[in-house]
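Annotated sample (chain length 801).
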Amino acid sequence: MPPQRRAGLTIRPTEARHTHHTSLVAGQPATGIEESPTLPDPTDDLLSDAAEAPDAHEPAESLGEAVAAASASQAALQAAQLSTMFADTGTLATAIPGYRPRASQLKMAEAVANAIGQNDTVIVEAGTGTGKTFAYLVPAMLWGGKVILSTGTKNLQDQLFLRDIPTVRHALNVPVSVSLLKGRANYVCHYHLERAQANGRLASKQDAAWLRDIGNFAKATATGDKAELASVPENAPVWQMVTSTRDNCLGSECPNYKECFVMRARKEAQQADVVVVNHHLFFADVVLRDTGMAELLPAANTVIFDEAHQLPETATLFFGETLSTSQLLELARDTVAEGLSHARDAVDWVALGAPLERAARDLRLAFGRDNVRMAMGQIDADPRTAEPFYETLDALEEALSGFVEALESQAERAETLEQCHRRAVELANRLEVWRDDRVAATPAPAAVASGEPAAEGDAETAAPPAPAQSGPDTVRWVEVFSHTVQLHRTPLSIAPIFTRQREGQPRAWVFTSATLSVKGNFAHYAAQLGLNKDQSLTLPSPFDYAKQGLLYVPRDMPPPNSPQFTEAVVEKALPLIEAAGGRTFLLCTTLRAVQKASDMLYDLFAARGINLPLLVQGQASRTELLDRFRQLGNAVLVGSQSFWEGVDVRGEALSLVIIDKLPFAPPDDPVLAARMEVLQKKGLSPFAVHQLPHAVITLKQGAGRLIRSESDRGVLAICDTRLVEKPYGRQIWQSLPPFTRTREAETVVRFLESLRKPADEAGTNAWPGAEAGGEGRVDDERVDEGRVDEGRGGEERGGEA
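Output written by the structure step:
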C-alpha cells in the first residue's frame, strides 16, 4: 500500500488499514481477490533515520540539511524504482502482456513522483500515445497516500475504475482500495422513485416501461448507478423523476436515508485509498466546502486531474452562481406534490404554485424565440428587450416572495415541505443578490442568436461588446434556451479562488492532458488557474506523424465570415470524402454550420449517387452515433463541439478529419467580452493573451481525433486559410502534430486512395508530391516543431492514448 505522507516524511500506514479490498463496483463486496503483500519501500530506513529526534545541542540547520538530504535520497531511490518498473523486463512488462516501455512515460512518472514527494504541483502535457495513465497511476499508488483522481468525462472515469486501475494494481501487487464516485444525478433515489411510481403521471408508455425497469433495478442493484441499467438510456427523461438534486434531497431526514445510494457511495469514497471522480463533482465539493456544507470528498494527499484542459471552464461554472427558471418550476411542482401528499386540505396547493410557474415562463417569453447569451449591457441597450425583461423579472421576484411567505406557515406540517421552504428562501435570496449587483451598464451591440457568431470570421480584430458593469471581479449575464432562462454571475478570473483552495492544505497537485500549451508555452493555461507555468513538462508523442498523416489547407477559400463559407467547405471536402471512401469526421465550430453542411452533403450524395452513410449530430446520442460510425466502417459524421474531444476511433474506420474553421470563441460572449476588457485596461492584447491560446488548445483537441495509434494513418484538413495567411498562423500550426503538409488537393486524394490499398502496395509514405519545402511555407513541407493532441482512448498496454 502506498505510504502516507505527513510533514514531508513517509510514514507506513498500519497493517490493519489494508485487511480488505473494496469492490471494483461500488457497493459490492469484493470476491475472489487475494491479499497482496505491501511492496517493500527501500526509503523507509533512510527516512526513519532522518526523522529521529536531533541532539538538543544540534543546530536547527543540521536537521534541515539532514531532512533535505533524506528527501533527495528518497527521490533518487524512487526514480530507480520507477526505472525498473517501466523497463522492458520490469514490473509492468512482466505483468501486462504487450507492454512497451516509453521514455516519455518514465519521465512523466518521475515528475509525478517528485510532485508527490514534495507536496508540489506539476503540469504535464503528454502527447497521444505517451501512456500517461500508467505514468501517474504507478507513483500515485505507491507513494500518493490518499488520492483523488479527477477526469473530464464519465467515460474516462469508468475506464480508469474498471480497467486501468485494476491493471496497475495487479501489476504492482498492492492492495489499494478504490472507489468510483459520481454526481447524485447518476444514482437512483429511493424516495423520488417511490413518488414517481405513486404519481403515475408519465408522458408516454415508453416512460412507464422505463420506470418499471428502474424500479426492478433499484431492488437488485448494490450501487444504484444508472450506467449499469442498459435498458434505459442515460438521457431518458424519466431519470429526472427518479434521481435527486442538491435542492430536493432530504438528507438525513429522508425516510430512505439508510438505503441511500448516494450516501453509500460517499461513505465508500471516504474509506478508499483512491477515489475516482470527475471535474464537475470535484468542484461541486469545493463550492460546498466554501459555503460551509458537508464535504463530498475526503481530504486527500494527492490530487490528479486528467483531461485537465477542461478545468478552467468547469471551475468557472462552479465558482460562479446561476439561477434558472427550471429550478423555480421544479420548486413549484415539488411543493404542490408534497403539499397534496401531506397537507391536502390546508392550502389550495395548485393555486399556490401557479403564479410562480407563470412568472418563470413569462421571463422566458420576454426574449422571444431566439436562444441567446446577453450581457446586462446588451439588454439595457435595447429597450425592446430591456422593458419586458425587467417587467417579468419584477413579477418573478414578487411571485417568489409571495410563495415563500405562503409556504412558511405550512412548512412545519412535513419535513418535505420544510425542505421546499428552505429551497424557496435560498432561491429568493439568490435572485435578490443577483439583482442588487446591478450598476449602470455601458450600452453594447445586440446579442447574436445562437449559431454563427457575427464576428467569428475575423475574431482577432472584432470589437467586443461592453460587458455588464457588475463589479470588478464578476460579470452578470443572461442565457436563454428553448424553454428556460438562466441568470448568471461569473467570476472574471478563477485563479484567486482556485489558488486559495490549493493552498488550504499541503498536498501534491498533478495536471495532465495532451493539450495544455501553445508551442510548449504554458502561460495561458497556468494563468487561468493561478499555477506556476515553470512547474511544467512537455512530452512528445511517440507517433511518427510525418509518415502517418498529412495536414492539408485548401486553396481558394472565402473568408471564414463569408455567407458562402460552409458551402465552400463542403465543395472542398467532397472529393476527399470520396477518395477516403467515407471514413470521415467533418467537425464544425457551430451547430448552424453542422445543419447546413449535412443538408448539402445529403443533396450531393443523392445527386451524384454516392452511397455512403451520413451521420449527423442530433440524430441520436453521441455514444450511439460513434458506435454506428465504428460499425459501418465507411460513414461520414458531421458534428460540432461534442465531437472535438473525448472521441477515440482507431483503425480504418476514420482516415479523414475535416475542420471548417479555427475555433475562436465568439467575441460577443459576455464572459469573454468582460475578460477582454480587463486585459485591454492592463495594456495587453486580448487576442494574443486569451483568444489565440484558447483557439490553439481547442484546435489541438479536434486535430487529435485523427491519429490514435502507431498504425493509424490519415489526413487532417483545416479549411481556414488564416492558418497560412495570418501572421499568427505559424504559431497555430507549429502547435499541431508535425504532419507533412500540403495545399494540393491532388496530393491529398492520392494519399487517401493509397490508404484503401493493401499495405504492401501503398508503401510506408505513399503520397507523391508531399516533400519538404521552404521555411515558413505551408505547402508540401514537413514541420520539425509541433505538439501533439489529446484524446481519450484505450490503453495500448503502456498507458492511455
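Annotation: The two ends are 27 Å apart (CA to CA).
Annotation: The domain at 544-736+740-762 is CATH 3.40.50.300 (Rossmann fold).
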